[in-house]
Amino acid sequence: MAGTTTFVPIPGSEKALPEGAKLVGPVDPGERIELTLLLRAKAEPAPSALSPGEPMSREEYASRYGASEADVARVVAFARGAGLTVVSASQAQRTVVVAGPAAKVLIAVRADLGNYEQSGRRFRGRKGPVEVPSDIGDVVVGVFGLDDRPVSKGA
Predict the structure, then answer these.
(1) Which residues contact 6 (CB under 8 A, 6 or more apart)?
(2) What pLDDT digit, counting tens, does each position of 42-91 carry?
(3) Dihedral of the CA atoms 145, 76, 78, 45 (nearest 10)?
(4) How far is CA 129 from CA 53, 93, 113, in A?
(5) d(Cα 129, Cα 10) in Å, to the nearest integer?
(6) I need a surface site. Which of 1, 21, 131, 132 has the fewest CB within 10 A?
(7) Are the CB atoms for 93 and 104 separated by under 8 Å?
(8) Where along the chain do its domains lie?
């Protein structure tokens, strides 16, 4: 990835830290991070499972509403070019799962990421939007896995 790469924010990716979270330090550049990149669907909007209509098989649904082969190939090429490992890629699920050290992940995808503490729990958290290179900005609609904060309290 060249230094001249331009980045674009993913719409809807803006995130705030939980109330009371305190920064305790940067993310270890060698920490392994696994991300799931969600790709756009071939056709929008995909029907709801609850909407009436003709039933369709999983294969037919994936064929109509999955990611295109070209989009998956673009994102896989981007990830490999960024030095990330492609863990899996699925047209049907519209996902490309990648992994690598935090230093490479944060060059490939931009986010304000740090280690935080809240109520005695430490977590990797982020604030603000997630940005991706503009050459895949029209394909990637979500990036998941940067943040590992707890989402609920255990029973």
Answers:
(1) 133, 134
(2) 876 666 665 667 777 888 888 888 999 999 999 999 999 999 999 999 99
(3) -70
(4) 37, 23, 10
(5) 7
(6) 1
(7) no
(8) 23-44+56-144
